[in-house]
Automatic annotation (TrEMBL):
It comes from the Bacteria. One of its GO terms (molecular function) is transmembrane transporter activity. SUPFAM superfamilies: MFS general substrate transporter. The chain crosses the membrane at residues 12-35, 47-64, 85-104, 176-196, 229-251, 271-288, 295-315, 327-353, 392-411. Its main location: membrane. This is AmpG family muropeptide MFS transporter. Keywords: Membrane, Transmembrane, Transmembrane helix, Transport. One of its GO terms (cellular component) is membrane. It is a multi-pass membrane protein. It is found in: Membrane. PANTHER family: MAJOR FACILITATOR SUPERFAMILY DOMAIN-CONTAINING PROTEIN 3, SOLUTE CARRIER FAMILY 33 ACETYL-COA TRANSPORTER -RELATED. It comes from Chromobacterium sinusclupearum.
Length: 425
């Protein structure tokens, strides 16, 4: 057994990587509840696609979270420390707010549901601020690729709860019970928060609000230069635009194709699980060997091609009956999407983490991920209108075309094989 093999096993099965599993799961569950379970609930209760598409606007907290991230950097809650205190508070708030959805009727309380969804998005975005900072502070630069791959795959696996288990349960029990069960899956993240230690880097909090607000932006622009900073911000905005739009109405798309909620749930469980796990583990190992820049190129190509699977499925039109062949087609689309988008996201988040400075983790990470969330929020709000205007097949071809500009910017921000040296705090 070689030293390289020992190091690889030590890195993959370390305590730090286990923590990344829990951060990913806790981060992914509320988002997927909003983008998978909530649309499925609304659609099954007769809400039209235009209204469901507009629900993407509830994601605005994800795009504006950099505004209150300095406060979470500057101030600490009385218990558990600066990072862990905010983590536990946001996780408990998410558990409570997710459980409340089932008390409303989509036909009569659509505005109340929208308000509650906005509240969930706010707590989820707040949790992401501190989880991203916490993860960046426990990972060395050498661990960023693997650690963020583990985080992203756990993030995606969390989507199997609202996107699979909850849909299966929805065919067998009231929606109120479904939302309560879904909310209880926030408990593993809360237990993780209680068991881990506060990162050492987190002890050096900003002393003033000016340090918390102004210095992170000043440092980024000074380090990259104005032109370099704009290239990076443009890339962060565009890299996930196409696949974000393509998956924004995935569950309503499957329902419109004629699949039952339980069929979607069962296929998503099996076809989405193994490609995500296997692809994620391979992606993490490949990223160690390739470096983040090459991974952005290679995984990005797979990410773009995976969008075409939706167009292929849509080209058949609505199925009159769903048999083994139609379920196999759905499995191929979900599995390839899980592999492609999962790989692309892992490299993308690793790039964002690398672009932050250790001294300003929370605010810079929140700024970059907020910008990445803009397409998911604003562009996705129009997806329902676009689909009703041009149809599902043309919509997915449009999403594929919108994924190309982000790939082209890799020439500027991540040249093939030219990974920068690690930063010092």
């Amino acid at each position: 057994m070689t030293l390289a093999t020992i190091n690889w096993r030590r890195d993959v099965f370390s305590r730090t990587m286990l923590v990344c599993v829990f951060t990913g799961f806790a981060s992914g569950l509320p988002l997927y509840a909003l983008i998978n379970l909530l649309p499925a609930w609304l659609r099954s209760e007769g809400v039209d696609l235009k209204s469901i598409g507009l629900f993407a606007l509830i994601g605005l907290p994800y795009t504006w979270k950099f505004l209150w991230s300095p406060l979470m950097d500057r101030y600490a809650l009385p218990l558990l420390g600066r990072r862990r205190g905010w983590m536990l508070a946001s996780q408990l708030a998410l558990l409570a707010s997710l459980a409340v959805f089932g008390l409303f009727d989509p036909k009569q309380d659509i505005w109340s549901i929208a308000g509650l969804a906005l509240t969930v998005a706010f707590f989820s975005a707040s949790q992401d601020i501190v989880l991203d900072a916490f993860r960046r502070e426990i990972l060395s630069d050498a661990e960023l690729g693997l650690g963020n791959t583990v985080h992203i795959n756990a993030y995606r696996l969390a989507g199997l709860v609202p996107g699979s288990l909850s849909l299966i349960l929805a065919d067998r029990m009231p929606w109120g019970s479904v939302f309560v069960i879904t909310a209880l899956f926030m408990l593993p993240g809360a237990l993780m928060t209680l068991m881990v230690k506060e990162p050492k880097l987190a002890s050096g909090s900003p002393k003033t609000l000016r340090q918390a607000v102004v210095e992170p932006f000043h440092e980024f622009v000074t380090r990259q230069g104005w032109q370099g900073a704009l290239w990076i911000l443009g890339f962060i905005f565009l890299y996930k635009l196409g696949d974000s739009m393509a998956t924004s109405l995935a569950t309503p798309f499957y329902l419109d194709m004629g699949y039952a909620k339980s069929q979607i749930g069962l296929v998503a469980k099996h076809a989405g699980l193994w490609p995500a796990v296997i692809g994620g583990l391979l992606g993490g190992v490949w990223m160690i060997k390739l470096g983040i820049n090459r991974a952005l190129w290679a995984f990005g190509v797979v990410q773009v091609v995976s969008i075409l699977g939706f167009a292929w499925l849509a080209s058949y039109g609505r199925f009159d009956s769903v048999g083994a062949e139609q379920l196999a087609m759905l499995a191929v689309v979900i599995g390839f999407e899980a592999l492609g988008v999962g790989l692309g996201t892992a490299a993308f988040v690793a790039f964002i983490a690398r672009s932050t400075h250790p001294a300003y983790t929370a605010t810079q990470f929140a700024l970059f991920t907020s910008l990445a969330a803009v397409p998911r929020t604003l562009a996705n709000a129009a997806t329902g209108y676009i689909v009703e205007s041009i149809g599902w097949t043309s919509f997915f071809f449009l999403c594929t075309a919108l994924a190309i500009p982000g790939m082209m910017l890799l020439v500027k921000v991540a040249p093939w094989g030219d990974d920068p040296a690690p930063q010092q705090a």
